[in-house]
Fold:
Amino acid sequence: MNQFVISPSPHIHSGDSVQKNMYRVLFALIPAFLVSALFFGWDTWIVTAIAVLGCVITEYVIQVYLMKVPTTIMDGSALLTGVLLAFNLPGNLAWWIILLGAIFAIAVGKMSFGGLGSNVFNPALVGRVFLLISFPAQMTSWPRPKMFNWTDVDAGTGATPLELVKQASKEGNVDQFTDSVGMIFNMISGDVGGSLGEVSALALIVGGAYLIWKKVITWHIPVAILGTVIVFTSILYFYDPTRYVDPFFHVFSGGLMLGTIFMATDYATSPMTYKGMIIYGVGIGVITVLIRVFGSYPEGVSFAILIMNAVTPLINVYMKPQRFAQPLKTV
Amino acid sequence: MLKTFSLGGIHPPENKLSARKGLKDLPLPKMVTIPVSQHIGAPAKILVKRGEEVKVGQLIAESAGFISANIYASVSGKVKKIDQVVDASGYRKESIVISVEGDEWLDTIDRSDILNKTIELSPQEIIDKVAEAGIVGLGGATFPAHVKLMVPPGKKAEVLIVNGVECEPYLTSDHQLMLERGEQVIVGVQIVLKALGIDKAIIGIENNKEDAIKHLRMITKNHPNIKICPLKVQYPQGGEKQLIKATIDKEVPSGALPIEVGAVVQNVATIFAIYEAVQKNKPLISRIVTVTGKSFSNPSNWRCRIGIPISHLIEQAGGLPEDTEKVISGGPMMGKALTNLDAPITKGTSGVLLIRSLEARRKEMQNCIRCCKCVRVCPMGLEPYLLMQLTERNYHDRLEKEDVMDCIECGSCSYTCPSYRPLLDYIRIGKKDVGQIMRSRKK
Structure:
């Protein structure tokens, strides 16, 4: 007689997988990577390669030699962490600093919590913030974009738009940026100083649209963050335009787009319900603006996301999905 | 915009391979096995002895309580033995085995195909007839049908909702029934309306069965009280609570029955069985079964007598394909995997699905990546990932608070999970444990 496979229902599967989701996110990062390579040349390739290798090898070594479990490097998550970490670094960072960041991101940010899905904090951001605190000088010296001039090694460094604004804010002449259409255009296209992957808002938005279309992420977190930033900075801007820069500047500058679309939406570290996602997004928006405007760092997206990552388990406890009908009241 | 339910839902590939394949009568085998427990509730009490001659339509096991159902002989012949037989659920069940001799029917049964539109019985007589005929919910739940027709005191039925959704992939038995026996179904609807003392009926049909929608609309042209309601193709549209939400926009509260919102829900196949019982005096001895599968040579719909071995159906319809590694009784989302192909077709068997080796096995489970896709697809607004975690840790109090008992076991969570986590398996365990605790508390 035939021996049949027995299992409980359901007997079919959607065909979705961890790999598919990870590789779709990686695919969505391609436009940003290409723009970055256009502006920073070989630096983009080198930094990304070091970060990716560092992450993947660290995960492999920990799983195979330390935990003695089958390795999961093929699922693409370590690869993704590597790419995201690279996107958060300046292009002229020394190779050993990058490597250190990658090892820290995976070893402390991910594997120490139990690996994929168990981590509380976004591993790439853990790596970045670790480097930012350990190597503040190297981490805040931004190479100028050197479009079509890749061989020019000594293009020098320059401040990011947010750093310029921070400075101007102290002097009370922020309004010089407000009418600067050219600067907004540069920030959308990517021709500004900054981390490798954050410079082009447009390329990041294209990637985000792809992810929403493929249902890898939903609109809730990005819209909540951007909406909050716009509302909050508008209030400040109308209050005193000489000290606070306009909302468009905030939205398109710094790591906000990268953080909003690719870091805050990380599955493991963001809430499980729509309601929770909105709260999480609003929290990130508020903290980002607070740090940018009132804090001592010019940029606060990474810290904002990490802080809200820590709040996520709490959000999950209190924010329940809309249940189907409320229970009968027992009289 | 097509109507649909409000929360969650998935859209698995429909794979309705046997759609529009005309109904055929399945030739009788040499032997049939009729379990006495084909319904929810107490097993029926056996009335026949070994060696006894029976005719088609003869009562062979009697309902043993309010929630129970009569069982009739589906073939004529001799009772060969009364034995414990493994049925589709995988459990041994007491069954009456009849060796088939000829096809002799009781004279009281009207076997003609003539449509009888005049309803002579009074409401109470209809309900008695439905109970007597051993009719149970044929959509798969197998809850005795007459119980649903008796509105409890203090409650009021307002609308009859007929479930012609057939949201399970592959299955087409209800679709074919509506196409070929539409007139009878509509008379059946009128019979049930009369029994309930109401006059509003809605027939919900998923929009992938446009021909059935058109056909029923044409027949009901002169019945303004019967509305055909096309529904969005979305699983689990045919879940009772989802269907009520989609058709009349009311939510049945947690732990309550549809009557709480004035609805009575019956499957189209059940309605057809009621028509046959009331108008033709024919008890429930046969049903329509889809037999299908991707590598099966002849996906088709058959009128099968209750008790015919599933292996006989597969053989007659086209033979078991070489690469079959899993056989499902029912649809792929909620059906049961069979251990034994000789298990009989029972009142609740809506289809037989042959799954290729390619798709038979589950993939290995991975870590939960907390993508929250299970939360998004849950039609009851639950958090499957959390229910699984709580079940693993035996946190029964939390499980109860997280409304684990509301789970309708539709399987959308397991279907969707990118990490292949067996969410529903765990939730079933959690439900069982919490249910036991809740019952012991009541005592």
Notes: Residues 50 and 99 of chain A are 6 Å apart (CA to CA). Chain A is about 60% helix and 0% strand. The beta strands of chain A are 142-143, 157-158. The mean pLDDT of chain A is 87.
